[in-house]
Design goal:
Number of strands of chain A: 6
Number of helices of chain A: 33
Structural class of chain A: mainly alpha
Strand content of chain A: under 5%
Largest interface: A-B, 49 and 49 residues
Strand order of the largest sheet of chain A: 2-5-1-6
Oligomer: homodimer
Largest sheet of chain A: 4 strands, antiparallel
Distance between the termini of chain A: 45 Å
Chain lengths: ~775, ~775
């Protein structure tokens, strides 16, 4: 167990690391050449087209284009922090969307919850714990850390001082619930306000319908038209079919790859006009006959273009390529709200309607999964997630047993002389077993995302939320419980199955105070240094410069080479929730942990505010749809903390206090249920009151709006409009042939469909799984 | 433990009891005087007005009016059984409603499930168990019952024969799931078909809205009108306010009581015209001055009538008597379906809309409970139910300790000489402690019903379902688990909390085979004899004859004296589910129990079919809304049986088979989830496809229908129309004054509101709790 000095050293190291990252960031972001890495958001929204030089000076020379020579700007290297705070929340919502603004509110919520809790805990509980001083007497026999003197471990069993801890547990619970309630209320209000003040958007009028039954002799389009004309006679407007464009998307990706190679070779030729680049036609360009690269790729692309064209025609014409799903549009928000919230068909597995996600947010591939399949998939994935959470160590241990030095020597005997060198050997022996685990942890989010995709959710936002949920379970079991109770998750599961339900919180509860130092270190490494590395954006920086060097020719290429990224919800949400859990659990037990959490929340808030303002470009806008999950996980943390405190106190023989504590989890569950029914509908359903108010407002302001034209190809697969606008028109015509009864539209009045940036935004990974 | 002979004796006694009941029933039901007790249904639907004499003979004398003298009819005393089976299911639905028909299907489902299971289990498992013969060797030391030789206890640990049991567990699970799926499918179809083929009903067009916000300066009626005219502009028709008629209802009940006394005295006078009956005006008629009874009650009633009139006027006029709830009617089923399924307001706790139950089904009292209060009530009631289930023995033990002989002697010393007589003493000692328990069990359903009422459900049908759920938990814990594991439920809870989760099914599983004989006896006493006593209707018989003797004057009075009752869902559903549980649990363990269950299902089916056809008059029609609960409880039984089998086999050291069995509960849960999403929407929501189809059909058949007039006072509190039709018209006029914007209706085209029998049907217990 670490003493206070050890913690101090660790804190010093981590603060140093964090500062190093911040310093590097401060230096790098001022270089004009990195401007597109650290400020891509401004390029995307179009307010910046070329790097602004750091200071007020307008001097520009060839060096100044790449390196910032204005020394004054280096002096204020931390000024991004106040800058990040300048933007008001309403500006932020306009600038980056509600999702990002609400995401930042989670950190603020952490501060709001933990600042009073920390003060109270430090002022009341630490003196109580210290004054008791059981551990001073024990010191000679046991190695007791200084941290423990400040924790509940220092209070002797049966002490009357536990009343302080119990009353604090009540006060903290009430405070946390109050803050959570206020915040939920606020976020729900912000969501409704945002929806109400939004521009007209296609998804407000559109409903996605799945599991359209195939009727012999009728096309899917005809069925959809007939069904909605019958059942929503005064509200149905038109619909768009969904094409199975798997193969087409594959070709498009091939074309993109070829295009990159062509660019690369043309650039090479431009730089060295004396020598035309050549390539080999065989496998991976390693064998075969030598040909001129530019001609070769140009020809290949032409071939591909004809194939793409024919495939596109086939996809649009072939009735089998139309999937049993459609986007159904209504002539009012009211009509769409009604259709999304009601049951359409006698058979509840057919004609499933739901709000259409906005086009950017759609995960097209999952539109065609039938009902039975979804239910089987969910079963399989939940078993798989359970197995992954509890048994992930088994395959890793297996790989580790293979990847030891003996195994390596057998596979590659020629490496033996190298391996036998002592330094290398000891390095490898320390390194190899960890490698499998590192790789696993690195690919885990991807694996979880694939699992969510298999489950069949329609929107990227939902996929991310579901992935976040899975990741949270993993962290809860393997990071939180796994650190507290020794042994692998599987061993824990085994021992929990053989313990009584009242014994489990006791086992965990007893270990909690002992692990405080570990978690303090964890918070500093993962939280402080991790967040500082987030702002540095090392990976996008390297990739941008590589792309810039090899394939960027035009400004448009440069724009494409930018990778603004977005708030990585599947990873950040579970991490955040883990910190909430740690803070709430340790608030009563070892209050000295709280300041570390506070620093994390404050620092992360600054960093993410900067990133949201300057870097991230959200791929979609889910209008804070993730909030119910954030809320319920914090409530779950509260519940867990109460159970563990109950277990801990029961071992402290504060038995007469136990009944008092039992009331807490019951009240917490009730609070959760109440909030769920009070606020959750605002995140799941669109109230008719709102819908009709917006309809009426629009009708009076734009009485001649041609909604049909506005909605015409909003939900066309993005693949079909990836390149030229010419093609788009063509597709539009095709679509109208497919949609039988749509009258010819008057283009006069039609507002143009919403414009999204060409590359970011769309979810291309159509057949990637 | 009982031997096979003991079981035989018990069976003989119970069969004898059942036959005695049946014989008594056969004799009593043939007497014309009892006709209204055993065939009230026919009087209510109006197809019978006076008793038909048993045989073909039309001879009637004064004796023949009361006693059946046709000896031939006595010979065929069991012919009600084939008679009960004659009616086809579609006739039954027409005759008694879908609820009753589907209720009978539960018994049929029991037969369908258990006939093949019984045959298979007896043919395969019994020989396997017998052939093993472990227990023969043990016989000398232990007392082993013959039943145990046929059960799984007879198979020695680690035997390969457990494969038979495991494969049977799989086959039974698959068969049960298959039957459940088919049945759910069928019932869902029947429900939709019934809804589609139904006559026009007011609840198809009506939605109940709760938590109407009070706006200063506007009445509730104005708010409702404004809100729905804005948000459902093309569909809203009109609404009916809900009056707080608590006090009024109380007066009405007083009047009814007085009326009974008046009738009683008038009848007395008629029979003895020489002596006018007198009564005393004081407390309970025991003291005070003597007055003429008929005059006294007539005068009292007149006084009350004026008070009732003024109270009625006050209720209708006073704006404070209007509750923040309303029945909102739409001009089409589509409009009502949309409103019931969507969210209306930004604040999800206001303007809560839901399908209106049919007027007969409404529990008026709960209409005014606000949202927060409901959520608090639910918390309190769930804690109360938990306490009731696990700690109900504590108050009973307390009462028992008071109600022993010593206590009695102290309270009433003058009883001492009587108590000291030995026979009486031993009788009392055996009787008194059980008395408290008996009384508790008798009032338990009422207590649970009150709890459900406190929870705030709107419809009587829902109240009954929720009561059934609570009763089921009570039976599961106290009858099923309580019989298997010794000790009170509280002791069980305590020991379960201190056992590991894997140990619990083992503890219970081991005891299961040993309790088979107990449950066989239980089935015979509670099932066989209990059902036979159901058909005898002893309580209604006695009450009817008492009423007939003292207060019945006119035919209408006689009609009122009939108490047809209805299927008592809160008690029969949990009982049924307990039998399903027993059958499924013992199918693999002790198959010899199954024939007893089969007899129960077959016999109960016959009895209830007879009762449904001839006796019961349902108070409401919920269109089989209870089926999802029946289904899910049978699935839960399956799940419990699998866990217990797992526990049992793990003690038998058939350890290598355990993993195979783990798959079963997982698949069962999945099956449950699948069925829930596949079928449950049909029971919760009204598909728009159905709604609009019915709208269109009606429009073409009755284009001039005046819907507004049809709906005008459908949801008037039944209290307001309890007596004379004259009053009804008056109220109707009042209502129109209250509902500001309703245009004067043309009565020309108005179809009359649906006619329900005057007394049964309505739920009068307005302020009874």
């Amino acid at each position: 167990m670490a003493s206070l000095e050890d913690i101090g050293v660790s804190a010093f190291i981590n603060i140093l690391t964090a500062f190093a990252f911040l310093l590097a960031f401060a230096l790098l972001r001022l270089q004009p050449i990195n401007d597109r890495v650290y400020f891509p958001k401004w390029y995307i929204i179009g307010s910046r087209t070329s790097p602004i030089s750091g200071g007020g000076g307008g001097r520009r020379n060839i060096v100044g284009k790449f390196v910032n020579l204005n020394w004054k700007t280096y002096l204020t290297f931390l000024n991004w922090m106040p800058q990040a705070l300048q933007m008001s929340e309403s500006q932020l919502i306009q600038h980056a969307g509600l999702d990002s603004a609400v995401f930042l509110r989670i950190y603020l919520l952490g501060l709001k919850i933990f600042v009073p809790v920390t003060i109270l805990a430090l002022v009341v509980l630490v003196p109580v714990n210290v004054s008791e001083g059981t551990l001073f007497f024990l010191r000679k026999e046991l190695v007791i850390s200084d941290i423990d003197k400040l924790s509940i471990s220092n209070v002797r069993p049966k002490s009357q001082k536990f009343w302080f801890h119990i009353s604090m547990a009540y006060m903290f619970t009430i405070w946390i619930c109050y803050m959570l309630y206020k915040e939920y209320d606020r976020v729900a209000f912000m969501r409704l306000h945002y929806l109400a003040s939004q521009q007209r958007r296609v998804d407000q009028f559109t409903v996605v319908v799945r599991n359209v039954p195939r009727v012999a002799g009728h096309s899917i389009s005809e069925s959809v038209d007939h069904f909605f004309q019958t059942n929503h006679p005064n509200h149905y407007l038109c619909h768009q079919a969904v094409y199975n464009a798997n193969k087409f998307a594959k070709l498009i990706r091939q074309r993109e790859r070829l295009h990159n190679w062509l660019d690369y070779n043309q650039l090479k030729f431009e730089r060295h006009p004396d020598k035309r680049p050549t390539t080999k036609t065989g496998f991976l360009g390693l064998c075969g006959s030598k040909v001129d690269s530019i001609d070769f790729y140009k020809q290949k692309m032409q071939e591909l273009d004809t194939r793409i064209e024919s495939e596109r025609q086939r996809t649009l014409k072939d009735s089998k390529a139309i999937m049993p799903a459609a986007f159904v549009s209504f002539n009012s928000r009211w009509g769409a709200a009604v259709c999304a919230q009601t049951q359409q068909s006698k058979n509840p597995t057919l004609w499933l309607t739901d709000w259409a996600p906005e086009p950017r947010d759609l995960y097209w591939r999952n539109l065609a999964i039938p009902f039975v399949s979804i239910s089987v998939r969910k079963l399989i994935i939940s078993i798989a997630v359970f197995a992954l959470v509890f048994f992930y160590m088994i395959p890793i241990a297996f790989v580790q047993s293979l990847a030891n030095l003996d195994g390596l020597e057998k596979v590659a005997p020629y490496l033996r002389p190298v391996i036998e060198i002592k330094v290398i050997k000891s390095f490898l022996q320390g390194f190899l077993p960890g490698l499998a685990l590192k790789i696993f942890m690195y690919i885990l989010p991807t694996v979880l995302m694939i699992m969510s995709k298999v489950e069949g959710y329609l929107a990227v936002s939902v996929l991310e939320r579901k992935t976040a949920a899975k990741y949270y379970y993993f962290m809860l079991v393997n990071v939180f419980l796994g650190s507290i109770v020794t042994g692998t998750a599987f061993e824990q599961l085994h021992s929990f199955l053989h313990q009584s339900p009242t014994q489990i919180p006791r086992t965990i509860g007893v270990s909690i105070p002992m692990k405080a130092t570990f978690f303090i270190t964890y918070i500093m490494v993962d939280g402080w240094a991790g967040i500082a590395s987030e702002i540095l954006r090392l990976k996008p920086l390297v990739i941008f410069h590589l792309k810039n060097m090899f394939i960027v020719k035009t400004d448009r290429d440069r724009e494409r080479a930018m990778d603004p990224g977005s708030v990585d919800l599947p990873e950040t949400l579970p991490t955040l929730q883990l910190y909430f859990l740690l803070g709430i659990v340790y608030a009563v037990v070892t209050p000295i942990l709280l300041p570390f959490i506070l620093v994390f929340f404050a620092f992360a808030y600054l960093v993410y505010r900067h990133q949201v303002i300057n870097v991230y470009c959200q791929r979609y806008e889910s209008v804070a749809a993730f909030w119910p999950f954030v809320h319920s996980r914090i409530v779950a943390s509260l519940f867990i903390s109460q159970l563990l405190l109950l277990g801990l106190l029961s071992t402290k023989k504060a038995a007469n206090t136990t009944p008092l504590l039992v009331a807490l989890p019951i009240l917490t569950i009730w609070f959760h249920k109440y909030c769920k029914s009070r606020f959750e509908p605002a995140f799941r359903k669109y109230p008719l009151e709102e819908a009709i108010a917006k309809d009426i407002m629009e009708n009076s302001s734009e009485p001649n709006l041609n909604l049909r034209a506005y909605l015409a190809d909003a939900y066309l697969h993005p693949i079909f409009r990836s390149f030229e606008e010419v093609e788009l028109v063509e597709v539009r015509v095709d679509k109208h042939q497919a949609c039988v009864d749509t009258p010819p539209m008057s283009e006069v009045n039609s507002p143009s469909p919403p414009h999204y940036p060409p590359y970011y935004g769309y979810n291309y990974d159509y057949d990637e799984h």
